[in-house]
Design brief:
With about 350 residues, the chain is of the alpha/beta class. The chain has 10 helices and 15 strands. α3 (about 130-145) packs across α4 and α3 (about 130-145) crosses α9. The radius of gyration is 20 Å and the shape is globular.
Length: about 350
Amino acid sequence: MNTRKAVYFLAPCQVAVQEEKLPTLETGQARVKTHLSAISSGTESLIYRGQFPENLEVDPNIPALAGKFRYPLKYGYCAVGQIVDVGAGVDTAHRGQWVFSFQPHESFFTAAIDELLPIPQDVPPEDAVFLPNMETAVNLVMDGKPLIGEQALVCGQGIIGLLTTALLARFPLAGLVTLDRYPLRREASLQLGASASLSPDRENTLAQIQALQPNGADLAFELSGSPDALDQTITLTGFDGRVILGSWYGQKRANLDLGGRFHRSRIRLLSSQVSTLSSELSGRWTKARRFQVAWQMLRIISPSRFITHRFALQDAAQAYQHIDQHPEDSIQIILTYP
């Protein structure tokens, strides 16, 4: 085997699966056959639609995603597979090992052995593919610092929002309200422990939330990917409350009303992004330690139940079209590999 198949974003709304030569296996590397990969519907929708900031680095912290945002582009960061070969200097005992790696959607990939995360034996591969999402949710909660008795609000119940809700539901909060426009996601949110899950588009939603949280949210998360939701989130946050912004809007602009109540409410707005750790935690926490927490939460929450669709790699274009045109009936879509 000297070729692989890889998903390429060629232009807005144009996706193709192309065959390309496998990179040479170098010293210290392993070759992995991908078995499944998860599509990050929020970030990858921006790439699919061409809404990414041009010439921004894709991710300077992930070697497989080096370079700038520009077409043609390989992307993805949720790959699970088995090591099939190793280069010089790598113990052959690694062959057959199940691993997770931050890699684009491609049938085979090579990576330094220390960039591969061994999957614990008690974590099924379909749960392991959620590792980046769970790490993100853990990071969001760490940045939010929920306190006993607080009222929390989560806007957006895509997979990141749902996992964040699942973690928050384990805290002794006074209330946990979530917002999402799609009934499928609201139902999942309630199953995970939200005390109420409402549509942001209904006329009486604001009144309902104010009845549930009359003093506003102490802690709010904006995870919908919609810039308009940020203004709504700020409106629903109480005096001296915290708003954790986990969405990436790409080129989309947020129109905020900061001249009204926000000005006098001492609301704190914090950007939270998983590539780094908060400086307040870096003295005792590392990414490796945070991964340990993420693996444990995967065991507890079993997020594979939120896989709503599986597409074969060669049907990747249909998968992205489905996410773009029918977001109401999907939570997590994965690609499978022959």
